[in-house]
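Protocol step 6 of 9: fold each sequence in the batch and record its structure tokens directly after the sequence line. For illustration, a two-sequence batch is reproduced in full.

Sequence one:
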Amino acid sequence: MSVKRIILLPGDVHFSRAPDQLYTLLGSCLAITAWHPQRLLGGMCHFLLPKPAHNTAPDGRYGSDAFNLLCQFMQQNTTFPNEYRYQIYGGSNILQTTIKDSSIGSRNIYAAKQILLNAALSIDFEDTGGNYSRKILLDLKTGKITVHHLRHE
């Protein structure tokens, strides 16, 4: 079976199985990855903002909606969210605002942690913040995530 590399764009939520790989590029956006070590299933959401300004239909651009969409994929595969391993990436302060806590990246990091905490799920690892972009690749066969930091001059 050949490896398929699936590229996620901002607002995308994708779920697949081994040997597929999920790939994305992050700045202030944030990715929550989920991997099921027994079934070799997993997914990723790449959200832009913590929540919508108004009530709308579920939209992967927003953290809570993106995670709910990811959980729907888990259910469609007859698995439960507590069976997965979670990691979070991104939330950079690319524009280098002077008020760190008000940056979009900081708000996205906080939102991701709250989303998982509210669902009673733990984060195994995080690589968040900073002032650089990240390319991340989730290998659904191993659960390994490869991260490349991209420095901005």
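Sequence two, same batch, same settings:
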Amino acid sequence: MGCRQRTAKSDLLRVVLARDETAMRLVADVSGHAPGRGAHLHPTRECLGLAERRRAFARALRARAPIDVGPLRRHVEQQDPVDTGQADATASASNAPNTGDAQRDQGRRPGKESGSSGS
């Protein structure tokens, strides 16, 4: 939900809305059987942060009022105590495709020019 990367459902954490009389809050559904609409995300701080930034919870859970993310954040922080290694891995992974695209673009330009001059 946050990082938009596909993975096995067993690797994701299901979250649901818990409604009180005054507020709505996100809670982790560890059993995966809580009633109501749910959303899935990687149980990492990075994925949770991206989902919050994109306001993905409100859209996915069709919430119209502000949502308290505190209980879910505490659960994710317990599951993912170290955050530094994942940010470095994501940054290096995002640089790799750009290098490949640049090399691929350089390879196409001469081909297009030679193809266009021949026709």
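Proceed to step 7 once all outputs are recorded. Observation for sequence two: Residues 88-119 have pLDDT under 50 and may be disordered.
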